[in-house]
Design a protein that fits this description.
Elements (H helix, E strand, L loop, with lengths): L2 E12 L2 E16 L6 E11 L1 E7 L3 H5 L1
Antiparallel strand pairs: 1-2, 2-3, 3-4
Length: about 70
């Protein structure tokens, strides 16, 4: 299973120089449905933000054509 680190950029001032750090907020896992072989992503957050898991699916063909 493929996974990615999920981060958010945090910009701050370091002695007059703008710097950007990347804070880990979770992980993204690439999954495949057994019955249809469709790929989908699962997002697992390190801390609750209303929900602790999000799913992302590839857009339908009709959504892409618009």
């Amino acid at each position: 299973m493929t996974h990615y680190t999920l981060t958010v950029p945090v910009t701050y001032d370091d002695n007059g120089t703008e710097q950007t750090a990347y804070r880990r907020v979770g992980a993204v896992f690439e999954n495949t449905k057994r019955d249809t072989a469709e790929t989908f992503l699962t997002v697992k957050l390190d801390f609750p933000v209303g929900v602790t898991e999000l799913l992302a699916f590839q857009p339908n063909i009709k959504d892409v054509a618009e």
